[in-house]
Amino acid sequence: MGISVSGEHLKRYKDIAALFMKYGRSELVKNAGLEEALIEAPVATPSEEKLAEQLAADLEKMGPTFIKVGQLLSTRADLLPLPYIEALARLQDRVGPFPFMEVEGLVSAELGVRLSKAFAEFEPEPVAAASLGQVHRASLRDGRPVAVKVQRPGIREQILKDLEALAEIASFMDHHTEIGRRYGFTLMLEEFRKTLLRELDYRLEARNLEVLAENLRGFDRVVVPLPVADYTTSRVLTSDYIRGEKITKLSPLVRTEIDGDVLASQLFRAYLQQILVDGFVHADPHPGNVFLTDDKRVALLDLGMVARIPPGLQEKLLRLLLAVSEGRAEEAATVAITLGDAQPLFDEKGLSRDVSDLVSQIVGATVGQMQIGRVVLMLARMSGERGIRVDPALTMLGKTLLNLDQVGRALDPDFDPNAAIRRNAADLMRQRMRKSLSPGNLFAGVMELKEFAEKLPRRINTILDRVGSNSLEVKVDAIDEKTLLEGFIKVANRITMGLILASLIVGAALLMRVETSFRILGYPGLAMVCFLGAAAGGVTLVFNILWSDHKHRQRTARGGD
């Protein structure tokens, strides 16, 4: 059964079907029943080398939901080739601003006061505009300069409708296509839905800014704007205004005036700490979100997208980065396997060969050729191709490092990310140890020790009482001795029966040579009695063996159910 193309989702069905047709998925469109939506939307086939960039551009044109879909796909190296991952990782939305009249009405309604009462100054022209919202420069009554991010009117409703259309397509693919059954698009879309709706709540972004600023307070060259709580709601975010310009657009003159190597090292170290120690990561450090401030510091902006990495995964990622940076291919492959779920067709030897080749290329590369983010993305892609369902955190790490490679080299062309990883590894491990020894963790350990100490005397008394009464039993969940003994007895009985039958047959053969008047069917009677007895015993033994095996299989099947 195909997807219905009637109703309010028709336009989105046509857009999605056009994407499938354009990028080589025409068979999928046909199976999904979407081909009739293309009657008025013919699509020319682009050249192969531009497909990745054009896909990013097409998703950008389709609006905020599909821009975010592209960003989600950029974290799935097991689904897309590396050129697509890189193109989608750089995906940014560039749309025109909405009228200031709507801005004024929305901010006044959200804050509960007129714009002129809340702000001493509010510039009507936005300094930046995107599909989810736009940013205006303003100043509070006390003179504090702020940036006010205002959510685009109606954007939540539009996104929810797009998600409904995508959910229908994802459900169809999960039930009717092999790729859908393999990857589970419905579950993937549900996680994406939660992430996107969280990004639409600016109160969560304000909290993210506070957490990141606290985590990075030890970096004097890195700054995070703090929110203004009284001027922040779910659709309006007011925070410190950062004066500066994008890192990647610095003029040669500005580059000569800054300590590029110090800034690049601190920024890279800050992200390593986020990923490997704090577990709270600014997940979208593309060049548009990283500024050089007027006082020559690096500012991290836009924390709508963050990633949380649990401690166990942090340790694996640290081991992976160290193995890659130091050229230890075998360990890198071993860690990569643990970063995902092995599928039935997993090729471990093939993955080890691929990783060895990749790491050997890194060892022989120059600093200018080295891109640690690209290496991690390639590693994730190789794992997916060899039968590992990769944890999205691995691709997120690759994406983050890929953007940092670009930003770091804009600050310092000689920046070496591998050397930075090795240089900071020991300190990162110390930080992880200190974090594990935090008051909260120590208190939890003390509580467990207290509980153990309270119960220990009673447990020791119980053990000693049973030892004294000779009733102490140690149960080992191993082989069932009773069942094993019964099996030995059955085998012994069958062997004995077989020996008796063999003796009867040998005796019958010897008695055949003894002449006697007692005959059966013309043969010596005693010989025939022995032979017929052996035949009957043999048939009985075979029947007994078959019946016992049948009963055993039935009991095993019932136990498995």
Q: How would you describe this structure to a colleague?
A:
This protein is α+β, with helices and mostly antiparallel strands and 561 residues long. The protein has 5 domains: 98 residues, no CATH class; 128 residues; 192 residues, no CATH class; 35 residues; 73 residues. The protein is 60% helix and 10% strand. The protein is built from 22 helices and 15 strands. Strands 1, 2, 3, 4 and 6 form a 5-stranded antiparallel beta sheet that branches. The protein has a 4-stranded mixed beta sheet with strand order 5-10-9-7. Helix 1 runs antiparallel to helix 2, helix 3 runs antiparallel to helix 4 and helix 14 runs antiparallel to helix 15. The protein is elongated and about 135 Å long.
Task: Please describe the topology of this protein.
Layout: H1 10-22, H2 26-32, H3 51-61, H4 64-73, H5 82-89, H6 100-111, H7 115-118, E1 119-122, E2 128-129, E3 133-140, E4 145-151, H8 155-176, H9 178-183, H10 185-199, H11 202-215, E5 222-223, E6 236-240, E7 244-246, H12 252-256, H13 260-278, E8 280-282, E9 290-293, E10 298-300, E11 306-308, H14 311-325, H15 329-338, E12 340-342, H16 348-363, H17 372-385, E13 388-390, H18 392-411, H19 417-436, H20 439-468, H21 481-511, E14 519-520, E15 523-524, H22 525-560
Parallel strand pairs: 5-10
Antiparallel strand pairs: 1-3, 2-3, 3-4, 4-6, 7-9, 8-11, 9-10, 12-13, 14-15
How many independent structural domains?
A: 5
User: How much is the radius of gyration in Å?
Assistant: 36 Å
Strand content: 5-15%
Give the helix proportion (percent range): 55-70%
Gap from first CA to last CA:
34 Å
Largest sheet: 5 strands, antiparallel
- Judged by helices, strands and strand pairing, the structural class is alpha+beta
Contiguous runs where pLDDT drops below 50 for at least 5 residues: 25-44
Overall pLDDT level? 77
Number of helices: 22
> What overall form do the CA principal axes indicate?
elongated
Give a count of the beta strands, DSSP E runs of length 2 or more: 15
Oligomer: single chain
